[in-house]
Amino acid sequence: MKILALDTATEACSAALLDGDSVHERHEIAPRRHAELILPMVDGVLAEAGLGLQDLDAIAFGRGPGAFTGVRIAAGVTQGLALGAGLPVIPLSSLATLAQGAAGRSAVLLPAIDARMGEIYWAAYEKVQDNLVRPVAAEQVTSPDAVQVPVDKHVFGIGSGWGTYRLRLEDVLDGQVTGMDPECYPLARDMLPLAVREYNAGRCVGADQALPVYLRDNVVKQG
To answer: β-strands 89-92, 12-19: how paired?
Structure first.
């Protein structure tokens, strides 16, 4: 299977290519440079694998939630590439990608991205077979004080929301937090296992459906 994945929803910009058992990737923490970097990253992983777009089975992208401009860049680039090559598209949650990157943890995974204006984008996931994650709390945008997971579960936190609101999240989760990684970002390489699952399940869409998900109506104020 050959799947290209890209994500620009946060400060990180990344592209990764699954080519059978091999993964080629590029990533950089580069706020406000995503539009400049993402296409060269795509060209780089394709060249490294010796493939063209026409050789791929699908393109996956981080559909958000995340920074307004970043999410739009990923969607727009994916639309253009998929339309030109006649490829199906796999939209994936940036929160699920964060969780998948921490799937080795034996806890409920709680990714949180700072949404500004005193709120976070968050969801909760658990690991299932093949080390993949599935949601146990739907993605949403709320105050950190509104976060809830089952009270009998340990929680591992991931993402920038934990850097900004660590104390409030620890307080509302009342002793459930066993660890966190606030410096973690959604990366395209972590999208690939989720993309394979979606592709095999037939959950692809046309290029015209490569649409952002913001979770908030008032997106203009986001970075």
So the answer is: unpaired
Cis peptide, bond prior to residue 150, ω within 30 of zero: no
Spatial CA neighbour of 5 closest among 72, 97, 126, 111: 97
What are the structure tokens assigned to 182, written together? 């606030």
Check: CB of residue 184 under 8 Å from CB of residue 102.
yes
Place of tokens 């015209």: 208
Contact 146/121 with Cβ under 8 angstroms?
no
List the strands of the sheet with 108-116, edge to edge: 133-142, 119-127, 108-116, 155-158, 177-181
**Cα–Cα distance between 1 and 196 in angstroms, integer?**
8
> How many Å apart are CA 94 and CA 92, to the nearest integer?
6
User: How do residues 22-67 score in pLDDT, each as one tens digit?
Assistant: 999 999 999 999 999 999 999 999 999 999 999 999 999 999 999 9
User: According to the model, what pLDDT value does residue 119 have?
Assistant: 97
